[in-house]
Amino acid sequence: MTQATPASTPKPRRPRPQVMRLTDAAAQRISELTQRADSEIVGLRVGVKNGGCAGQSYTVEYAHEIRPTDEVVEDKGVKILVDPKAVLFLLGTEMDYKADKMQAQFVFNNPNQISACGCGESVELRPAKIDG
What we know:
Layout: E1 20-22, H1 24-36, E2 43-50, E3 56-63, E4 71-75, E5 78-82, H2 87-90, E6 93-99, E7 104-109, E8 113-116, E9 123-125
Parallel strand pairs: 1-6, 2-5
Antiparallel strand pairs: 2-3, 4-5, 6-7, 8-9
């Protein structure tokens, strides 16, 4: 008589944290941009590039397609597609939209930001610390 061995059950995966969240103002602006674009837009692609006096800057562009490597964030009815190389730098970031008499822009409230340059065009970021 042979004993049946219990089937190994995989450990439950902890839920993945949402990379970014949007304020109501940011979600409204993204919705406006996607509705009035000249071609079909699936959302905004957000990333980080090297450059500027502080070392890095945020990028925001129209996304016409979802790439297989994109981290898709759906929040408040709109989509943000995060470049996979930027995920660790953007983890925990709140994206806002501010408009005043002089300018209108997306603003990133990022816990991984170490510093910013005086002109506000570039930032210094560190990768997020992930608890294992």
